[in-house]
Design a protein that fits this description.
244 residues, alpha+beta, two-stranded antiparallel sheet, 8 strands
Length: 244
Amino acid sequence: MDISLSAGKAILVFKAICDFGRPCTVTEVVDVVGYPRTVTVRMLGTLEHHSLVERDAPSGRYSVSPMMLHYVHKALASNPVLSRVELILREIVDRTQDTALFMIRSGRQALVINRIEGSAPVRVLASEVGMELPLHCGGAPLTMLAYSSAEDIDAYLAGPLEKRTQKTVTDPAAIRARIAEVRAAGFSVGDQDMFDYVVGVGAPIFDSHGALAGAVSVGNITQRYTPERVQEVGRILSDTIAKF
């Protein structure tokens, strides 16, 4: 693969600024990316020139430019998977009244990239856009692991498995059993294994070529998600995804 090393450096600098979640100094960026200060400053200048980041003159700190929202919205509108996901999430919310999420996979993490609020009296503020979550628990994360290749699952289970709550399953054999259950049912159930007192139901999203594009999930507190409710929501997810 033919790649640009300079562009790669600029991208890593941009990611570092995003990860801070607040305005950051050149020194802080240098500490994260490990490039010489002169190189980092050049990359920041390039990003600023293209309106991807902005510099606050009084403090000298950098943050993501508001123009990025414009670029992102244009990209979302032209992406067939994300356009379809938007329709799926809105119908799920309409049918369940609970908050729905869309996640994609990045390495060993599930990234929350879309969230649509529900109208249920109780709302759970657990998974927010931008969060990174492990793949072996929860609704959407476990779904993505379950529909990964055998080699990918082996590699993931060979690595460290975070115990998020007392109910998080970290034994590889037990996780494999859960994966088999997810594939048989067509949806996953995360019962307080990602967040205490929260149940999440997830299902996979495939692109037009049949490749796994991500997963959607919906959930709420345990009192709202009885075993019967879980099965009902699982059917709603499957029916809605098939519809779109």
